[in-house]
Amino acid sequence: MANVYTALATPNIAFVKYWGKRDGKLNLPNNSSISMTLSEEKLNTTTSVAFSAKLTEDVMFINGERQDIASPAAAEKSKFIQDILSLMKERAGMREHALVVSQNSFPTGSGIASSASGAAALSFLLANALKLDMQQKEISVIARRISGSACRSMYGGLVKWQRGELDDGSDSYAFQIADKDHWPELMDIVAIVDPGKKKVSSSEGHALTMKTSELYEARPRTAERHASAIEDAIKRRDFNEMAYNIMKDSNNMHATMLDTWPPIMYLTDVSREIIYSVHELNTAAGENIAAYTFDAGSNAHIITTEKHEKDVMDMLKGMEAVRNIISARQGDGPRMLGDGDALITPEFLRLKGLEI
Amino acid sequence: MANVYTALATPNIAFVKYWGKRDGKLNLPNNSSISMTLSEEKLNTTTSVAFSAKLTEDVMFINGERQDIASPAAAEKSKFIQDILSLMKERAGMREHALVVSQNSFPTGSGIASSASGAAALSFLLANALKLDMQQKEISVIARRISGSACRSMYGGLVKWQRGELDDGSDSYAFQIADKDHWPELMDIVAIVDPGKKKVSSSEGHALTMKTSELYEARPRTAERHASAIEDAIKRRDFNEMAYNIMKDSNNMHATMLDTWPPIMYLTDVSREIIYSVHELNTAAGENIAAYTFDAGSNAHIITTEKHEKDVMDMLKGMEAVRNIISARQGDGPRMLGDGDALITPEFLRLKGLEI
Questions:
Q1: Which positions ≥6 away from A250 have C-beta within 8 Å?
Q2: Which ipTM did the prediction report?
Q3: Contact B275 A265 (CB under 8 A)
Q4: Which residue of chain B is at minimal alpha-carbon distance from A226?
Q5: Considering only CA atoms, which of A208, A245, A214 is closest in space to residue A228?
Q6: A166-194 per-position pLDDT tens digit
Q7: How far is CA B31 from CA A3, A324, B136, B156, B234, in A?
Q8: Measured between CB atoms, which of A199, A214, A248 is closest to B252?
Q9: Is the alpha carbon torsion for B303, B308, B309, B310 positive or negative?
Q10: Closest partner residue to B255 among A199, A259, A262, by Cβ?
Q11: Hey, are the CB atoms on B256 and A255 less than 8 Å from each other?
Q12: Which of B182, B280, B190 is nearest to B239 (CA)?
């Protein structure tokens, strides 16, 4: 059996959102964004790879399901994974085909996007397994091309994805603002709520409808302002200021979405209840002790500090529509795992009828 | 008993919204707006006035409740009504005090704002009762000062409130784009839904928080664009084009509200259901046959034409959260009523212990 390499990466929660691309093929954003890479206890993607002359094509499994990455009927995204795979193998002079097996450990139906951790795990894994001499920022460019915000999962702690100016995207990469020890008290409390109907996927929203928003013209510079303010606040560990800008940016992105045609609306009655409750909590405290932020989905992320974890938990526990609560801290970014964690095992190969 | 004068006015539904003032005292808007004045069967305000030397001060009742308009503790808005009353009496050389009695005929708990019809009825009534030689556009300026959008209720049919440029507000008045006979098929189907919690009044929103929106800078010129497009579409009776701009403007205003600090959120899960359903209806029809629009409240207004009334009704009837449906057509604007409709009657005076 061929050598198996395994890596793990985790999702990130955006403090400043990525919404609107200046290049859809390269995933080049209209604005910089900032996020916190989450700790791995509950939310992570593990990916294994092996290269073998016994394979007749590159093969990929996600959560046990074989993916069509090579046929003409494959989804754009899947074809793109094949492109990245081919590109990195070529760079390493690897002629054998790859078997990639990826598994997300997210709670079933949590509605948390696995694309960032998945793309980060794959990029990091390939760079290491193929012994490519790549800087982390180069790997983040690969991850970005697979799934924009994945580039931020290439680092632990608090991370900025700078917009960049170049048309080839080489300066649109992520870097670490601070590692997790800089501000270890930070937490992301994720309230999992019923998803309801989601009418537009986030990728469609990015690519097709964003330009129809008449307010969008003000979004990129607004997001840059939030990003600068948050970067400064992180350096000073100023939670009050950071929280304000996190909430402002979430509202700003969802406002822009509402203004697109047709409108995109992710905020529900539960979201409104959470938003108003966080405002009440902060008003009662006399400063911002918690910040809500919503991605393109129904779950709420409440950013807070250890000191106020209980306040946030008590607030959420009173809400009927909250089905589950997951607490995460800052993570370390992607790392290689040992053989004990490999997903490509003799049993897996037997089950799938594969030989490597 | 002194002479009693009585007038009636109706609310209007904005096709382009008024949100954001350049002068809060004069109610001068940042953008022009357009509305349809509603017919009077179900939604109207009737107001009576009498002047009498037997009164020791100006007295006002709204829906049977005495209003404090003169004491130092009176609300700003009430004091302002007193100012307008004093000003118009002075202009007419009227030395006697006024008794004003106003009644809204809106269904209880309908959550439909009565401020526009109330202010329009009062301004129109005073101008007529005091025999002031005022042009209708001058009266609309008075109505505007009491409650911004009331100036649009000074005319029947389809009405534009032009922003104006002057600091004194004399060119910020309403005029009729077309009377109700130009496009008689137009309807407003109002879906009354549970209001839920309303955390910020529309007046507070206008005055205090609008400036905190980082997207707001794009709102005034966007609204002007919608207003021009709708004015043109009205002239051509182009429902498809008008409907598009009505929906765009509603979403645009609510997006701006969401972006203010703290965020203002009037759209609920029911609103989202209605929005998506109207989009489905229009997609199925291959053109816009209905347009949703939401004010600063939970009710939905569906603008459509007679031909598609049933489609809209069927759509709304399937929704559990819709408590009541009111259909309105275009109205004629304010008019004087006869003695039989007077609200100041011997019985009323006896009940309230007043003499005139």
A1: A17, A292, A293, A294
A2: 0.92
A3: yes
A4: B214
A5: A245
A6: 999 999 999 999 999 999 999 999 999 87
A7: 68, 45, 21, 21, 19
A8: A214
A9: negative
A10: A259
A11: yes
A12: B182
Share of chain A above pLDDT 70, in %: 95
Q: Which residues of B touch A255 (CB under 8 A)?
A: 213, 215, 255-256, 258-259
Residue B107 token pair? 């269904």
Name A332's Cβ contacts closer than 8 Å, sequence gap at least 6: A37, A40, A156, A157, A180
* A/B interface, count of CB pairs below 8 Å: 75
What is the mean pLDDT, run by run of 10 residues, along chain B of 356 residues? 96 96 91 97 96 96 93 86 93 97 83 87 97 94 93 97 96 97 98 67 61 92 98 98 98 96 92 95 98 92 98 94 94 97 97 96
Tell me the whole-structure pTM to 2 decimals: 0.93
Please state which of the ranges A79-93, A141-155, A201-215, B302-316 shows the lowest mean pLDDT: A201-215
Selected residues 264-303 of chain B with any CB under 8 Å from a CB in chain A: 265, 267-269, 272, 275-276, 279
* E strand or H helix that includes residue B293: strand B290-293
Write out the residue range of the structural domain in which residue A197 sits.
4-352
Instruction: Please give the tally of structural domains in chain A.
Output: 1
Q: Any idea what the CATH number is for the domain that residue B48 is in? A: 3.30.230.10
Q: Cα separation of B33 and B148, whole Å?
A: 11
